[in-house]
Amino acid sequence: MNAMDGRHAASPAQGSGGTQPLSGVRVVDFTQVMMGPCATQMLGDYGADVIKVERVGAGDLSRWSIGDDPAGAQNPVFSSLNRNKRSIALDLKSPAGIAVVHRLLADADVVANNFRAGVMERMGLGYEVLHAAYPRLIYAEGTGYGAKGPYAHKGGQDILAQALSGVMARKCDASDPLTIYPTSLADYSAGMHMVQGILLALLQRARTGHGQKVEVSLYDSMLAMQMQEAAMAMMRGVEFSWGALPHNGAFATTDGALVVVGAFKDNPLREISLAIGLPDLSADPRFCSFTLSMQNRTELHDVLRARFATDTTARWIAALEARDLLCAPVRSLLTALDDPQTAINGMKLAAAQAGGDELRVIGSPVHLSDDGFALRRPPPRVGADGADILAEHGYKPDAIAALRADGVLA
């Protein structure tokens, strides 16, 4: 019995000698797109046997979400979220398909989904049913807004969660136009909260022997991400934003841009002024206190912007760092990926995979000193592992062939 109180040995394909933290934990994964898949991928990265249940034919929605990619169903978006998983494609509208699911769940530790509220229940796979049948099973559910309440049955999506939670409305400058944040903040944060919930439930099960339901939502994760801002709003009735503080800002240079964070200094504006060759702006009557700097932030930034526009990013970074000020160049993602620090941190993965298209994706940000992350499997093709998975669960070759013939198994 492993540290997470799993009931079965790791499958032979799991690798790493069965010593990863989650070796022996089996996950039946109904998730798709990003929130759920980034959670189950992290579980797989650290040894869990993740069985990805997909629709016959199309599979995970993210296999086709970016248009005409040369790799089709194995496109980079899908591939970035689904390594270290095995795929089985089933017709979940058929009783035979649901019967297969129950065979998978019989020795699973975790089942995860991020469907709209009610979808699992309509398939007869809701929490109450599964908890009664498999009391040790941990049931992880990700939704847009929560399993109950006025938004429970609305379609959840990252951008919508940004808008509804107040994230999109918060700006560093009131004159900035509203915009969609280009990275999937809600999906990723909710996915990581799902991982945390699953791990907590596994630890609790090791003590009690019982599984439980883990619920996360895009909406809650966006609210949680604003914990500092929310506390200020509820307790002081004021809008708070680190980005809107007067001594923080992004400024164009002759060859790019940089950001300055004037925090953790007694008089950051004086230090910034001296670093970039301006008179001490903290002595200017418009900016001589934090409150006045805040009130006159636009004027202050106009002064700084004009100065930073006269020289290169490297010149200003060197000058600011010489006075121990926090600053950084504004870079593209490709530039960041090519940084030696990215390679040293092990954040770029490359591996051969079927079809000749090399897998090149981001690694895990969690680094363990013992047997941690391992790239054991490339992202699976739709249903590629179905026969092997069924054989492991006691299906004979003729039964597997019959399921295929009936269209239950792809």
What would the average pLDDT be, to the nearest integer? 93
Order of helices and strands: EHEHEHEHHEHHEHHEEHHHHEHHEEHH
- Uncertain spans, ≥5 residues at pLDDT below 50? 1-15
Tally of structural domains: 2
The CATH topology assignment of the largest domain is Rossmann fold
Secondary structure class reads: alpha/beta
Q: How many E strands?
A: 11
- Named CATH architecture of the largest domain: 3-Layer(aba) Sandwich
CATH class wording of the largest domain: Alpha Beta
What does this structure look like?
The chain is built from 17 helices and 11 strands. With 410 residues, it is an alpha/beta fold. The chain folds into 2 domains: 12-226 and 343-405, 3-Layer(aba) Sandwich (Rossmann fold); 245-334, 2-Layer Sandwich (formyl-coa transferase, domain 3), CATH 3.30.1540.10. The chain has a 6-stranded parallel β-sheet with strand order 3-2-1-4-5-6, with helices on both faces. Strands 7-8-9 form a 3-stranded antiparallel β-sheet. A two-stranded antiparallel sheet has the order 10-11. Strand 1 (26-29), helix 1 and strand 2 (49-55) form a beta-alpha-beta unit. Helix 7 (185-208) crosses helix 8.
